[in-house]
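for the record, two folds in this file. i put them one after another cuz i was lazy. first one right below, seq on top, structure tokens after. the second one comes after a little note so u can tell where it starts
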Amino acid sequence: MTRLIFNIVLLLASVMVVFVYIKPTYEDPEAGIVTLQNRKEVLLEARSQLDTLKKKQSELIARRNTFSEEEIRNLDRIVPQEMNPVLFIMELDTIARSYGMSIKNIKFEEEKKTGIETPSELAKKKAYETFTVTFDVTGSYQNFSTFLTLVEQSLRIVDVSSVSVTANEVTDIYQYTVKVHTYWIKK
């Protein structure tokens, strides 16, 4: 007897599922057609955007192929894709040594990042990072002026943000504390 009651309850539950959930879901022609039409429009729009992006990509690749390897290397030196502090300091030191000066007291500063970003900070996000270096260099004014000119003319983008001078009362040699910013592209 309990077996018969169990079978009847199971049959009634399946009939209710059919009429309450399955039939309204699959038989409502308006909801199904409208949903499919909306999805079709979204997919067609995505396809057209993909075609546009593919055309743009092929144009950019064709344009890139017009550059020589030397020009591509120069572009990578202007704004590298990763920051190598040692290489950057070596470049500055090579310029300084060519005029009898040397770089000392090197200090690196990284951008301070907070763990939580507000919507305004997200909107201000840049495609590049800034790397700041402070260092001391000792030499005559003429040599230092030439050093700054060569740093300015180098391929890498370098902003000199501050220079302070400490005079030596005995000789014509000064100590310069220089703060520079350079940039690199985020990957």
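(here's the note) second protein begins now
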Amino acid sequence: MRIYIYTLLILLSLLFAQSLVAKVYKYTDANGIIYYTNNKPTGHSFKVLTFPCYAGSRKCGQISWENVRLMPTKYANLIELAAAESSVDAALIRAIIHAESAFNPEAESPKGAQGLMQLMPFNQQRLGVSNPFLPEQNIPGGAKHLAELYSQFGDDFDRVVAAYNAGAGAVNKYDGVPPFAETVEYLRRVKILYRRYGSL
């Protein structure tokens, strides 16, 4: 099937400072061509895709992460179980989920990261994830990945979180947090959310 992108308007540029998601409509025409648009289709069945404030969006830095609403009860059982199995703090798992996908299990970033903890396809098999959009697979997979990074970087929180965003290779290359604007902002965001979830 030939796939054409008619209009893929990632509405992140239209988000207000406190908004975390935007809507994009996906539909397929009679010829099998897939379209993405920010206008609600008429005459076609469609799927609504929600796009969180991804790490690469400048709007992420404009969100007041000190005041954004927390979601401590979302997937609570799965998070607590994954935390116990991986020995990773549940507050950090929540912070990563919030920072990565705003708790949207169907999130898929422009770079191809998928699900709640935005797992990249090349990591999923190693982490035991066959369907990254299922919370019961994605959360344990993401927690396992965090545990691996802790094993690699010890108790260096900044390096662990930076590696989750930019990759362990980048952290090793720069011997610390890579000087990428996206990663620096991501680390700031996760630190705030981790502190807030940890204080509940």
